[in-house]
Amino acid sequence: MSIVSAVLPCYAADTAGVCSALYEMGGMTVVHDASGCNSTYATHDEPRWETVHADIYISALTEMDAIMGNDGKFIADVTAAAHDRKPKFIAICGSPMPMMTGTDFDAAAAEIEARTGLRCFAIHTNGMNDYLAGAADALLAVTQEFAQIREKAKGIGVSILGATPLDFGLSGTVGSLRTWLTENGFSVVSCLAVGQIDLEHAASASVSLVISQTGLKAAQYLHARFGIPYVCGLPVGTLAPVIADALRRSAQTGACAFPCAMRKPGDHVVIGEGIAAGSVAAASGGRVLHPLACAPQIAHPDDLHVPDERSVKEALEGLQPAQVTADPFYRYVLPKGTRLNALPHFAFSGRCFETEIPDLIGRACR
Amino acid sequence: MNTQYERPPFIRIADADRTALFAEGLEYNTPARGMWNIVHTGMLLPGAHQVYACAQGCLRGVILTAAEMNALDRLSWIAVSEQDLFDGTLEQSIIDGTAEIIGRLPRRPRVILLYLSCIHLFAGVDFPAVIDALSEMFPDIHFTDCYMTPTMRKTVAPAVKMAEQLYDALQPLPVNGKSVNIIGNDRPTQPDCELLRILRENGFTVRDLTECRTHADYLQMAESAHNLTYLPVGRQAGETLSRRLGTKHLHLPVSYDYDTITANYRVLCDALAIPCPDFSADIAAAEQALGEARRVIGDAPVVIDYTAVPCPFSLAEMLLLHGFSVQCVIADSAAGEETAFDRLAAAAPDLLICQAVNVNMLHAHESASGDALCIGQKAAYYFASDRFVNIVMNGGFYGFAGIRALALAMTDAFLHPKDRRAVLRHKGIGCESCLS
Prior knowledge:
The complex is a heterodimer of chains A (about 375) and B (about 425). Chain A is α/β, with parallel strands linked by helices. Chain A has 3 domains: about 15-130, Rossmann fold (3-Layer(aba) Sandwich); about 145-260, Nitrogenase molybdenum iron protein domain (Rossmann fold, 3-Layer(aba) Sandwich); about 260-355, 3-Layer(aba) Sandwich (Rossmann fold). Helix content of chain A is about 40%, strand content about 15%. Chain A has a 5-stranded parallel beta sheet, with helices on both faces. In chain A, helix 10 (about 215-225) links the parallel strand 8 and strand 9 (about 230). In chain A, helix 1 runs parallel beside helix 7, helix 4 crosses helix 6 and helix 7 runs parallel beside helix 10 (about 215-225). Chain A is globular, with a radius of gyration of 20 Å. Chain A starts with a strand and ends in a 17-residue tail after the last helix. With about 425 residues, chain B is an alpha/beta fold. Chain B contains 18 helices and 14 strands. Chain B has helices at about 40, 55-70, 80-85, 90-105, 120, 125-135, 160-165, 195-200, 215-220, 235-245, 260-270, 280-295, 310-320, 340-345, 365, 375-380, 400-415, 420-425; strands at about 10, 50-55, 75-80, 110-115, 140-150, 175-180, 205-210, 225-230, 250, 300-305, 325-330, 350-355, 375, 390. Chain B has a 6-stranded mixed beta sheet. Chain B has a 4-stranded parallel beta sheet with strand order 3-2-4-5, sandwiched between helices. Chain B has a 4-stranded parallel beta sheet with strand order 7-6-8-9, with helices on both faces. The interface between A and B is large, with 65 and 64 residues.
């Protein structure tokens, strides 16, 4: 059965996740899709588009090139643009049409790399999955490519993983998180993927702090490759000291921790991305509804997966919560009498409530 | 400014091949959002509900277009998954999904605009069978096949097809010889133009979807004996509607060339068997406004982009003839403007043409002087100018009155700079927006 929605929006797609994750890294990202399809990302999924200018382009795929399998044009166009733009690296990814025609993106990347002399890699998207998948794969790819073994940072060095505007807008959450870490005795050695990124230092951290599932694969890689443990959670409200303790303990023991999966009782429901929504619920009480895929270790057993409008509605009808913390567009499916505590999510409502996205760090959770 | 580039974004008109101004390549998206898309156009139809069956990446843009218009309740969707593409359920999942959506809507729509995407066409979906099945299930609803197929843009341009399908729900009525439709535009035609004056003075009722308030108003358009189009995007819509209803189509293309405008009106009057008036007063008014604009704007550089007017080269030629310092036309093609292009190439060989989507335009605005008078949003963005005429698709301007109105708008734009960032981020000029 297809996912159907009468009124709720869908989340940003995997291709947007790739572009958002790589936006500030100095590379060139190319989505192999039709002309104009980059407007969706540039308008609705990228709040930096007007102010920070990145080499994010579309291949302008045509019917004839798709039918004829003319990947040579795609490779030549990327090569020409790389010549003109001189990026640090090139990432290419796909959309539904190349998926149907079976474009070999790894081969295309190898060909582009040979022609340009620039590192080029493929992120395997098809425009049919949500942003978490694309952003997670993109952050994993650049971490594998560029994170190097370096001397460990003094004290407890932390890598922030999963920071993109798709989850936090431009509300200041990531800046406040840096401040919070510093005030709690940690040093920030890298941040994927906004502001001062310092990607190559990611492997010199003592512990990674994963604040969205977009950073989970990179964290798992750093754990497996460099033995760096990770903590999943956002230091919101009363969860902040728990996360600070977890970071210290993980740095010491090497064990990973998942404070975002803690729950306490309450007639409250939180809907959103697994780590952020879980952290809010861990701080304020209540249950979490996951409209997006959620890794098992991130979720609590009482959480519910709600992949479509019908299941969100049914879950809320069943739970009859006193209040729901969610993006304002979820107002369309709230049971009568349930109060909405608006927490706009850029990956869901785009620009519609962008000025109302809060700085979550230190925010008193109701 | 071009020498270091393999794909330069600028070319002198004298050096350009008008059949292919620029090499195709990767494309950049300008943060200028005033152009309409198929969602904006579909919303023109009173009583219609839009349903999109697409991949998530394609859905996102249309959904949030509706959301920003405060019209989320007029659009629904069905996500296409990989599974749908190979398990033989492509058609059935669209039928089932649409039926489920109709069941959840608080009101029964009169028309459903059902949009399929590139992958459906590529997979050979039987769209007529889908429409037939739904029409049988819901006989009180008219289902119109619509297309979000940008990959097929060279064979079926999405905007052209959308304009065409907007009139699909019109059913034949007894023909009224004194009723005329204006077809294919996205906003009302300026009320003071000669076109409307001629029609009004000769007793014609003018119908236009952009001025229909109810579904009944829309359906009444079927009685018109003549369908007029003046925007290139609407031409196919006019032809198709006229063929289907057995009425007449007249294409009177927007132009900034006085002879062409006069010729258009002669064609109109001949077709309607009415006398063609004298336009000398209208021409004089246009000339006066252009003279005043030239006096105010002086030698400031003028930049024209194709999103503002469908015939930027015709406009550039007219402005150059009136003494304006036109320096650049932003256009990816010169199709339909071959004559004006050739005259310009001879008369103003140094006029620059700029490729709107060129990747090397990414930082162009950072080095722009900001002193240009721009016609159109892309021009305003790339040339970093707050002095711009904020229109798309000719802004409802037509004829000599259109030239006068544009000249007045240029003067106003020069004297009263706009908040460029705020204006350019508003999606769909003229549409409601939750951002403002």
